């Protein structure tokens, strides 16, 4: 690019970190390091839309999620400072303010290049599209930092994404998973190093107790992956993965994957190294199998856009559910007539985490037992789960509600049978105090008269 006098113009970039809070296996950040002479590193503390506010009608406690996120950002800030950079925190109350904030930065700093990773977030893509239309000379660079494959590595066009995971898996398993790229070790100087995050941001906070003490951040995530594969847990993963409350029963990789602290490719690379030394079996394969589920929902979100959040899902088939405020509060607070559901919901509220099996059970309960619009549950998960991932969360809720990628139409779990299978002695239910809380799903009738539950 040349200026009006024909001289080579200085290239100034903005790197917008979004679910890629790391230096390893981040080819987009490496491209920014090579492509601009100065760089402004930013992230938004939170992006909320009117849609989210509508489907979150209660006050929530998300301390664990915010704690983990603060640690993740703080560690990234420290890593950037070691490379002479600084991370800037941006505030925005909604799409319009986020767009205005970025527009101001582009104008104030004469930005020539914007770097923002691809994601399944329609919200982020909308902001990027509007920036592109408003700044004709702005070069926008995007890359798939959150997935195993890039668009051009898929064995089909995105418009032809299979409508079920099984069909997707049969196609994608034929593709070799690319190796992770290296770690970024050099960055251009900051455009403005004032008002960035303080050096100690997020570094003095303690660990979270989710069965074991964990911290957010790239170093903590990579250390967890290494420590997992230093044990033989991967060899029996398929047998233990459905446990409701045992730290060692599943990988827990999702905590750092969702926050972009660890890349999926890095995990697969470590797994293959483990298999070379310890052998491969159904359990080691199952780790890849579940990463492919995550991969599918990433492209599912990219493919369907706003339909990911539609009540009638991707097939335009509305379920027979509504919204009942009292039932929803019971579900959130873990005071339903279903002890296994109560225990899972109380675990989530306290720790910010719930097992995959637990998520299926509480989702089935909300939709099929309580007859509540699935979007309220999906939105509650979005704001409380440490490992919230837009594609996986909303895609899985559509799946359970019968409006998504499930060829069977819906998934209703027998909660009593599931309790006998996964908590036969009631240990999990007693630990999280899920018993004896209520015998009715309604405390008021349709006109808000109190119900006599003794009738």
From TrEMBL:
Family statement: Belongs to the DNA photolyase class-1 family.
GO biological process: photoreactive repair
Residue ranges occupied by any Photolyase/cryptochrome alpha/beta domain in the UniProt entry: 11-148
Name of the protein: Cryptochrome DASH
Classification of source organism: Bacteria, Pseudomonadati, Pseudomonadota, Gammaproteobacteria, Vibrionales
Function: May have a photoreceptor function.
Presence of the UniProt keyword Plastid in the record: no
Pfam families in the record: DNA_photolyase (PF00875), FAD_binding_7 (PF03441)
Entry's Gene Ontology molecular function annotations: DNA binding; DNA photolyase activity; FAD binding
Cofactor: how and how many bound: Binds 1 5,10-methenyltetrahydrofolate (MTHF) per subunit.
Gene3D superfamilies (alphabetical): 1.25.40.80, DNA Cyclobutane Dipyrimidine Photolyase, subunit A, domain 3, HUPs
